[in-house]
Amino acid sequence: MDQFFNAARPEITIGGKDHFLYLFIIIALLTLLFCYQRQVKIYEKTVMWIVLLLALIQRGLSLAYFISIGEYTLAEALPLHICRLVCLFIILQFFLQKDWLDQIIFFWGLFAYASFVYPVEISPLTHVMGITFVLLHSLNILFPLVRYFTVGFVPSFRGSLLAVVLFAIYLPLVAVFNELTDGNYFYLVERPFFHNMASLPYFLLNFFGVSIAFLMVGLVFDKIGKARDIH
């Protein structure tokens, strides 16, 4: 139990067995969701309650861990990493049921795919932060599919525009917040790549790179939708 809540968090190795275990878990969950999509539709309310419960457990475990080790700080524990915000949006969506919120959840949740492929500072499942990682990023990825199977949610170009606008607000705010608190939200300080790049070019690379990616994904979904309408 001491190891499970250890403040000195172990980290998995990219390409190691723990990394492949995480990839297997998300692939297995995606497969199960597709196999049981009919049941997801039939038991929509129950599924949404399960999603809400898992999201609350994820945020509760993360909060409890940081408090227990005395590291609940502005720089570390706030839900300002983008996937943590998506988890909060998922909780909010249980009550609001709005398409625009589904759009934000989908586009911002795309970062979760990258986290599984290229995990940075991620603990194994033998640590509580490994459990919270799986819960958090699985919810980010699976929730839009749940909404597709239950209410017919489909990402759109308009949705990507909204995601870009909110990202244009989010990124400068966390950059300033990082400066004030010595934080590392959105990994703008301790970076996964381009370690030697100056701060401003790195900020702009993230902003324009992410924005273009959102817009391209939105265009792809719009074209798919139009092609289906034609046929």
UniProtKB/TrEMBL annotation:
Stretches that traverse the bilayer: 20-36, 48-67, 79-96, 103-120, 126-149, 161-180, 200-221
Instruction: List the InterPro entries hit by this protein, alphabetically.
Output: CHP02206_TP0381 (IPR011737)
Keyword Transferase appears in the UniProt entry:
no
Which top-level group of life is the source organism from? Bacteria
Keyword annotations for this protein, in alphabetical order, are: Membrane, Transmembrane, Transmembrane helix
Entry-linked NCBIfam families: intg_mem_TP0381 (TIGR02206)
Q: What is this protein called?
A: Integral membrane protein
Task: Please tell me the species this chain comes from.
Answer: Tetragenococcus muriaticus 3MR10-3
